[in-house]
Amino acid sequence: MIVAKPILSIVHEVKHTPNRVALDDIELIAQNASEMLVNVRESMLAPHPAKHSPVFTTSQIASLCRIDRKKVNYYWERPELGLPQGTVLPRTREFTLSEAREWVKKVGPFNKRPKGAKGKKIAIGNFKGGVSKTTTAMTLAQGLTLLGRRVLLLDLDPQASLTALCGILADSEVTENQTILPLIYGEETSLQYAIQPSYWDGIDLIPGSAALFGAEFFLPFQQQKSRGFRFWEVLNNGLEPLLDDYDMIIIDTPPALSYVTINAFMAADGLIVPTPPNALDYASSTQFWSLFTDFARSMKQIVPDLDKHFDFIHVLLTKVDSSQSATFAVREWINRTYEHHVLPIEIPTTTVTSSASAEFGTVYDISKYDGSNKTYLRAREAYDRFAEMIDQEIYALWTWSAEGGAAA
Ligand code: ADP
Ligand code: MG
After folding, report:
1. What does the pLDDT look like over 32-71, one tens digit per residue?
2. What domains are defined for the chain?
3. Which residues surround ligand 2, an ion (CB under 5 A)?
4. By the 8 A CB rule, do 391 and 147 touch?
């Protein structure tokens, strides 16, 4: 086990000017922090070195497939259907995530992506940090896979929290070449090279890393240097070849209107803006929309014939704490401001999410929750309904374009 050097010793060496830290010292702090994180992660995930997806009971299979338990037994007794049999344990039966997803795809009442319909790209954005963007990206992906979908997660935040939620530490386990950077630098034309499988069946990941900051220098530089370069189209072009392989591509963005965020928004078919109903987050969400407007205006100036539209823009109320008296009022402001863009589903604040997140997980990562089952179910139901709603909306868009809607 690596033991990180105590950070305090750095401060103590500077006797007379205790608050001064030279730039060189920062490197030492960074090194300590990343070593510590590796240790902390290992102890959190102990006894397993890597993340594992949850297991499912027969009742959970029934609920995922929208059938009753008797029907599960009925299907299960017919080997000709080729449904996974699970593992027999004393008095019960257990299914892996991949077995559960096979059940869902074979006997669940879900609609397949129509032939020829392309995967939809959904960006999660808000220029404020801590509003639940990354949690929303991960839970949406997990919820969609439990509806039988195949999802690609794209982590565009140099902080790489989504990558961490996938059980990968960006600092020590991701090289620059595994991120979107080779695409940004023009060394690759398709993002295929960066896709890696994750611990969660049905979710693939393109990881993020601190090196993503490089894009913020390169894209404006290239825009100035090369005539005809369109910095805002790089990501979309790289995703295009992947759209047949995935039902949904979910893009987590950094909390800033960066060049990379612009690429995400320009590529996205749908935009989801997580907004907690408290006064400060509401205030910064208004800034998000005004900055977004400025950006849209300047894009129109650069490219007057730009034909960009979103299939949907949703405001999702997140971290909703109904016990706070302000919540009610701010929820009203949000509804009045964003009107039909506000989704009729809200994600409650849950200790389940915050405690699971400390272990790099979400509500979906829990096989058996030890705390109050009611709290868990409330959060789980909200996330399930959210994923279902997005799924239905995307299915409607697929059928609409198949009927010629997109050409109209
Ligand atoms: P962002 O990506 O916008 O910065 P995160 O998804 O990383 O936001 O969430 C910020 C913090 O809030 C994390 O610690 C996360 O676990 C916590 N969080 C997110 N959603 C919830 C929720 N519904 N209930 C409680 N805590 C939450
Ligand atoms: Mg984030």
Report:
1. 777 777 777 665 554 445 788 999 999 999 999 999 989 9
2. 56-107 (no CATH), 120-364+374-402 (3.40.50.300)
3. 133-134, 161
4. yes
